[in-house]
Each structure stands twice: as structure tokens, then as C-alpha cells.
Amino acid sequence: MSLVTVHDKTFCTYLTEKDIQARIVQMAEAINKDYQGKKPLFIGILNGAFMFASDLFKHLTIEAEITFIKLASYKGMKSTGNVVTSIGLDHDLYGRDVVIIEDIIDTGKTLHKFLPQLDHQQPASLKIAVLLHKPEALQHPLNIDYVGFSIPNKFVVGFGLDYNGLGRNLKEIYQLDGNNE
Ligand SMILES: O=P(O)(O)OC[C@H]1O[C@H](OP(=O)(O)OP(=O)(O)O)[C@H](O)[C@@H]1O
Ligand SMILES: Nc1nc2[nH]cnc2c(=O)[nH]1
């Protein structure tokens, strides 16, 4: 197990690069199977999902499009509850098969606030693919179709996820060390 320091906090390895990549391949295989013969539109939620979206997309063998939107609500380790959209959607979703790509679902507030906006455009289907899910933290019921890892309710960094802007470039996922919460 290795430790990293990001700003004032110490984090320890939770998921290795190998674990993450192997799981992403399995998720892509499930999506390839479910969307055979369709041309889904993937919507990555920036910033955190950029790395997961990129790796997942590389393993898709179906015809697929991808776009990104930018939503944010976290300051430090806490959700502000205020989901701000700073880059909006540039595609018409009417009649499309849509798959949201998220790095993490924690309280569920971000998607709870955003999904009705997508539903309003009447996509043919709307599914969610998320790398990390914290079931104990969820405050809003969400149907999550593809989950990489269900994880404990501890703050994580790495593989796209930041602590106050830093740590996104780490190849592994690290969990807040119990001693400095
Ligand atoms: O389920 P929730 O409690 O709403 O948390 C999940 C959201 O938190 C993170 O975004 P953040 O607001 O940190 O922005 P970022 O992706 O730019 O880091 C993450 O990328 C999700 O979008
Ligand atoms: N970096 C990071 N961002 C989050 N957004 C929601 N939960 C988390 C988390 O555990 N880590």
C-alpha cells in the first residue's frame, strides 16, 4: 500500500491501476452487448469523468458518439448542494440512446438535479455508467445501470477525481487515510 499527500491530507491506495483498467474493460463489454446495433450518445460529466470516459470509450466496439458537459458542486471534500453548469449540452437528445458517464456518485445530488433536464428532451433511453458509487452516502434514489466499484463512504482522489483541484492525474484511486479525516 502506498501513501500520497494532496494539499494537507494523506491518502492511501484503494484501487490499483490494474483493478481499474480490468473493471473498465468489463463495463465496456457489457455496454457493447447492450447497445449492439444502436448508436448511443455518451455524455461525460467534466471535470472528474474525463479519465474514466476516455478509457471506457477506447474499449467500445459499437458505433458511438461522445460529448461532455461541465457540472460542479464540490468544494474541498463537501457537496455545496449547488450544482453549477459551466459548459452546457450541445446535442439534441430527442430519440437518442443516451449514456451518462460519471466518475463518482456520492450523495447523488449532481445527477438528481441534472437528469430531469435530459429527460425533458425525450431521449429514447437514458442510462448511467459510473466508475465509483458510495451506496451509504446516497441521498437521492437513482437507477444506476453500470457500476465499476461500490465503495465505502470515504473521500477518494485519483483517476480524474480531485481534492481542491489536485490529484486528478494519479493513475490509481486513493482513499482518505483514517488518521487525518
Ligand atoms: O453524487 P454527488 O454527491 O453529487 O457527487 C458526485 C459529483 O461530484 C464530483 O464532481 P465535482 O462537483 O467535485 O466537480 P468535478 O467533477 O469538476 O471535480 C463528481 O465528478 C460528480 O459529478
Ligand atoms: N474527489 C472526490 N470527489 C467527489 N465528489 C463526490 N464524492 C467525491 C469523492 O469521494 N472524491
TrEMBL record:
Keyword Zinc-finger among UniProt keywords: no
Nucleotide-binding in keyword set: yes
The protein's annotated pathway: Purine metabolism; IMP biosynthesis via salvage pathway; IMP from hypoxanthine: step 1/1
UniProt superkingdom: Bacteria
Domain Phosphoribosyltransferase as annotated: residue spans: 18-163
Catalytic activity from the UniProt record: IMP + diphosphate = hypoxanthine + 5-phospho-alpha-D-ribose 1-diphosphate; GMP + diphosphate = guanine + 5-phospho-alpha-D-ribose 1-diphosphate
Identification of the protein by name: Hypoxanthine phosphoribosyltransferase
Source organism of this protein record: Paraflavisolibacter caeni
Gene that encodes it: hpt
